[in-house]
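In the design runs reported in the main text, the only information available to the sequence generator was the tokenized backbone. The following block is the verbatim input for one such run; it is reproduced so that readers can re-run the procedure and compare outputs position by position.
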């Protein structure tokens, strides 16, 4: 049961009073005039980023000696596909795949963030991240944290290779051996018949998956549908064709204001939809709370978020029912794990944002292996189900019986033929400037 009360601070921090949600705002005021920012901490001592732990895990217990990152290579495998290769001073290699965004932010990666990681002990990754953030706090948006996130992953892969342990084992222990997936489609140019009958249904059947996600709305579209009536027709057809045994969730990508989000949410409830992702523009997290309080369908969100303070607010106030950090955008595996631990303490489900199907899926699998309260299914690209080309790594991450086995072995459990990749790739120059504070 969702809470139906919020805490307002109309008389200042010491004067908060419990009011019903409808007393705070009505639906006709939700678009542009949101509920006052509630806070479950209004009467508690003020806290902020200063209480964020700099060391949430002890990475030295498995590795006695420092592991120093000496240099990094970037290999362009295909358009918008980059591999990051790290070399330690002792000759250990670590390889992690970049997401598509990193290619747009290479100067941030090489000029601002990488200098803070070079020649530092990778066991102190959280201290390094804190120092980098302190130096560049004015730049700390998604591009900055995405760059940090990749170097966090590289550090964990390198430490796993040194210790010959999986990332899950390094960070506390593996709780499961495989992960149930939902097939994710971000397509909005299709008709309901094309999307459900021709695209999603055969992929569900061939993979054995029992859950899927569909794109509704128009993506940050101010209540406009991708095509008139498409969203409701899509959800209606999905339930009719896929049946009651398939978990259906939808992603609006911030398409609606408050009243429209509630109206769409009611439609989703009638069709038994599992969760409603990003009903409102992602920066409007107080509006997400107002919408969530009025719906029985679970509201999910957080894929764009990287602020520790905002994450705490969203979780402690239960602005969403399902927490969705992106392991790269949020600043890496360790920062995302802090978010997940806080969410679990508050009884929320954790389902990371991961709309991909290449080797980066291995980071999701190791993450879910650690969770105490993961969601029942996790994201995997539906388009990859019928992809015939082999990837550049082993083991191939394939869905069978609706599940993906979590790779064993060191680090994230993915192995590359680096010599072959070098022959088939284009090196991207990496010229890091001297470490310095932001102006």
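Verbatim output:
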């Amino acid at each position: 049961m969702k809470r139906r009360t919020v805490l307002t601070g109309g008389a200042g921090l010491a004067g908060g009073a419990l009011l019903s949600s409808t007393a705070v705002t009505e639906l006709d005021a939700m678009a542009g005039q949101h509920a006052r920012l509630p806070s479950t901490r209004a009467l508690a001592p003020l806290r902020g980023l200063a209480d964020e732990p700099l060391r949430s895990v002890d990475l030295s217990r498995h590795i006695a000696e420092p592991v120093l990152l000496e240099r990094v290579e970037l290999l362009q495998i295909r358009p918008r596909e980059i591999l990051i290769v790290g070399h330690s001073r002792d000759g250990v290699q670590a390889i992690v795949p970049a997401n598509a965004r990193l290619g747009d932010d290479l100067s941030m990666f090489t000029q601002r963030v990488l200098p803070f990681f070079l020649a530092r002990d990778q066991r102190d990754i959280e201290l390094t991240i804190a120092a980098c953030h302190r130096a560049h706090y004015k730049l700390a948006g998604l591009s900055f944290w995405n760059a940090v996130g990749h170097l966090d992953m590289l550090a964990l892969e390198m430490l796993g290779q040194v210790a010959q342990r999986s990332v899950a084992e390094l960070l506390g222990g593996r709780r499961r051996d495989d992960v149930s997936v939902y097939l994710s489609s971000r397509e909005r140019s299709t008709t309901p018949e094309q999307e459900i009958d021709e695209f999603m249904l055969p992929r569900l059947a061939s993979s054995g998956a029992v859950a899927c996600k569909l794109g509704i709305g128009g993506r940050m579209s101010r209540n406009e549908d991708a095509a008139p009536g498409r969203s409701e027709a899509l959800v209606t057809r999905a339930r009719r064709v896929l049946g009651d045994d398939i978990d259906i969730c939808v992603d609006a990508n911030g398409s609606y204001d408050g009243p429209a989000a509630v109206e769409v949410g009611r439609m989703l409830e009638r069709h038994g939809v599992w969760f409603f992702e990003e009903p409102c523009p992602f920066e409007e997290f107080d509006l997400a709370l107002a919408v969530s309080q009025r719906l029985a369908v679970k509201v999910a969100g957080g894929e764009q978020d990287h602020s520790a303070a905002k994450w705490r607010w969203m979780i402690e106030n239960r602005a969403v029912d399902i927490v969705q950090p992106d392991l790269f955008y949020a600043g890496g595996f360790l920062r995302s794990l802090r978010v997940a631990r806080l969410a679990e303490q508050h009884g929320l489900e954790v389902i990371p944002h991961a709309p991909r199907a290449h080797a980066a899926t291995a980071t999701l699998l190791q993450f879910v292996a650690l969770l105490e309260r993961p969601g029942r299914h996790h994201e995997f690209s539906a388009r990859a189900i019928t992809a015939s080309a082999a990837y550049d790594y082993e083991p191939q991450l394939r869905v069978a019986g609706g599940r993906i086995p979590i790779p064993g072995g060191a680090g994230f459990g993915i192995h590359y033929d680096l010599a072959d990749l070098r022959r088939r790739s284009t090196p991207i120059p990496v010229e890091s400037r001297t470490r310095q504070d932001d102006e």
